[in-house]
Amino acid sequence: RKIGYAIVGLGSYATRQIMPNFAGCEHAHIAALVSGTPAKLENFGDQYGVPKTHRYSYADFDRIRDNPDIDAVYIILPNSLHAEYAIRAAKAGKHVMCEKPMATSVADCQAMIAACRQAGKKLMIGYRSRFEPYNRLAIDLARSGHVGPTRLITAEHGFPIKPDQWRLDKPLSGGGSMMDIGIYSLNAARYLTGEEPVEVSAVESTDRSDPRFRTVEDRISFLLRFPSGIVADCISSYSSGHNSYRINGTQGWIGMEPATPYAGQSMTIRKDGVTAPRTLPPAGKTQFAGQLDHFAECILTGKTPIVPGEEGLADLRVIEAIYQSAAQGRSVRIGA
Ligand code: NAD
């Protein structure tokens, strides 16, 4: 049996990346759509063969409870709405896949985890890079000491943001580049080490006279120290393009540039004085289909997702510490 997803929010990421990738899924299909725009429900409903009875507005969202064709929801809304819809979905008896950042505060992440646990439903965060072959290889190589034990990671993510969108409105986004794109640097530092940072030091630079940055930050640079001593030096930016990381070991480095785009990852390894590209055979499934199928398999077999709600919470804990460090001009201990 295929798991039926209700797609919640028919914006750019949902309609251009996620929905087309169901075609490559073995265990998942689009069962329902949720949107505030009737024309989108009609157009995408017809395009994906979703019956009229399975198209919902936000006002009718809780009626998904009565639809047995919906096993899970996939929340692809502006960040500050994730918690509300995740909790309503859990109360309606549905499993929850939620986009990154999981929510805009640690408290909201905890409430989402509690709601899903209470309902006996699974919760997963849309960290698609964990289903992308080069990132998976980078994790294996870094953690197995392919270039010697990891000493330092550098990670950079950013893009020049266009004006007039919810990402620049703090009540909807929860923050600026860090919440949106810098989270990829943070998440990579965590998955490449397999450790949780214990200390963070951050510096922010935002031109508040730029109309894009009235309520959210532009650039934020943060340094993470991990329990084993690994240091991660990370960049988040809304004013320049970056997409890379490098794992520096005692015998060389593993570089990924680009590291986390929708497609086209590229890896280079320098080991024992020799620098060479590392290429993998073409993947059978895209990272998007891999992510959708993984959650479906977890629902079908009772397994816990590799990126459960606790992963989203762990990132939010560090993000709150990054903002605190930047605001206070001092390093902040995490988890103490
Ligand atoms: P978007 O603006 O294209 O889509 C957001 C949708 O939410 C729109 O259809 C909008 O109509 C709807 N919406 C519902 N209530 C709203 C409200 N009160 N205010 C504003 N919009 C409202 O944004 P997007 O790029 O699709 O991002 C949606 C989510 O997906 C975000 O959490 C984002 O971080 C995440 N995302 C993840 C990736 C990834 O690679 N994993 C990529 C892009 C976006």
TL;DR?
The chain is an alpha/beta fold and 336 residues long.
The profile of the biggest β sheet is: 9 strands, mixed
First-last Cα distance: 45 Å
Structural class: alpha/beta
- Distinct small-molecule ligands in the complex: nicotinamide-adenine-dinucleotide
In CATH's first tier, which class of the largest domain applies?
Answer: Alpha Beta
Q: Counting H and I runs of at least 4 residues, what is the number of helices?
A: 9
Output mean pLDDT.
98
Provide a descriptive summary of the structure in words.
There is one protein chain. The protein is α/β, with parallel strands linked by helices and 336 residues long. The protein has 2 domains: 3-125, 3-Layer(aba) Sandwich (Rossmann fold); 130-285 and 316-333, Dihydrodipicolinate Reductase, domain 2. 33% of the residues lie in helices and 24% in strands. It is globular. The mean pLDDT is 98. Bound molecules: nicotinamide-adenine-dinucleotide. Residues 9-14, 36, 76-79, 81, 99-100, 126, 128, 166, 172, 180 line the site of nicotinamide-adenine-dinucleotide (NAD).
